[in-house]
Structures are given as structure tokens and as C-alpha cells.
Amino acid sequence: MKYPITSIFRSLQGEGHFVGYPTTFVRFAGCSVMECGIRSVCDEAPWKATQTLTAAEIVHCVRKECPAGIVCLTGGEPSDHDLIPVIDALTEAKFRVHIETSGIRELPGIPIEWITVSPKTAVFHQRIGHALKIVVTPGMDWGQIQARDENTAFFHRYLQPMMMPDGHTNIADVIAMLQSWDNYQGRWALSTQAHKTWGVM
Ligand code: SF4
Question: Taking the domain 3-198, which CATH number applies?
Fold first, then answer.
């Protein structure tokens, strides 16, 4: 099988739990989350696919970026594709495989080191993983966040400001939410798109 790929590149992880870690990103083209609340400002686009690659070809491209370390499968929505062949190939090549998904579908038994779920809809199906990361859209309140977190099982939970089309973010609102009494247990932490301030992809 072949996967539509936007880009494969080496950078530093700028979001979530592994912020600052050198990571090779495999960016799948396209996303089936049509009801996504931030689709209009998302930079995903199926037509951005620059190549279609087999699992072995993806491993080859990743190796050219770096022969070891973390590989993050991201998008678009990577779970739109049968990921088992590419995960198996990367794991066999001794890479540490992470995924960033909207949680639009369950990934039962997926053989992977780290799952970050970043739901863009009120209803999502992958409700267990290592990190839950919610992008706070303007007007989003704790009730909506807690509703998304209901019946989930994650080790870490992050709120991430939203990047507006003009380049500004609502980080002040998110910091105020994190410091509020609703987060008195410190269950949620801040995630930013730090790579954008570092000047890396
Ligand atoms: S779910 Fe993610 S990739 Fe899909 S449209 Fe929304 S922000 Fe973009």
C-alpha cells in the first residue's frame, strides 16, 4: 500500500509532552475530520501531498533525516490510513514511533510508544492514550473541556492556545484558565507551538 505524504522532515517537537526533543515528522496528507472546528485555519490539505510512498520508502526517507530516535506520525489525520505496515516497518528499523491524532477513530492495540489525542470535535473515539491535548478555541470554557475529558484515560492533559489567522494566539485566556480554580488540582498544563517561536518547522 502507498501513503499520501505532505513532507518528512527533522525538527524539534514544539508541542505537548516531548517539547524540545529532536523528532522526525512524517506528515500524512488529508484529513477526514470534516466537522473540525478549526478546519478553516488548518494548513492540512489533501492536495498538498507531494508524494505517495510505501512503508519501506517512508523508512528510507526517515533514515535520510536521521538514523534513530523519535518519529512522529502526524497530519492531516494519520489514522485515515492503515498505519500498521508503516508502524511495523519503523519499529523494525528501531525508531520510536509516536502518533498525533484527532481521535476520530479508535486505534485498538496499536503497537506504538506514544499516542497524543488532540480532538477537534466534541465527539471522538480514541479515548485512551498518553496525552490529551485540547486546542482552546475562542469562547471554549471548562465545561466543554471537561465534557471532552469525560471517560478518558490519559497520563497527561494539555491546553493549547489557538493560532489565529493573523498570527496572534489566545494564550492569555488559556493561562488564565490554567491558573483558575477549575484547574486547582493541576490536572491540565500549558502546551504552546513553541517551534514557531524557535523559528523551526
Ligand atoms: S483535525 Fe487536525 S488536520 Fe484535520 S482539519 Fe482539523 S486541525 Fe486540520
Answer: 3.20.20.70
Cell of 29: 496528507
Which residue's alpha carbon is nearest to atom 8 within ligand 1? 42
Q: pLDDT (tens digit, 9 = 90+) per residue, 51-74?
A: 999 999 999 999 999 999 999 999
Give the distance from CA 87 to its chain's centroid.
16
Q: Check if 73 has its Cβ closer than 6 Å to any atom of ligand 1.
A: no
Contacts of 78 by beta carbon, 8 Å cutoff, 6+ apart:
26, 28, 99, 100, 101
Residue 181 CA to ligand 1 centre (angstroms): 30
Model pLDDT, residue 170? 96
Atom of ligand 1 at shortest distance to CA of 77? 3
pTM over 0.70: yes
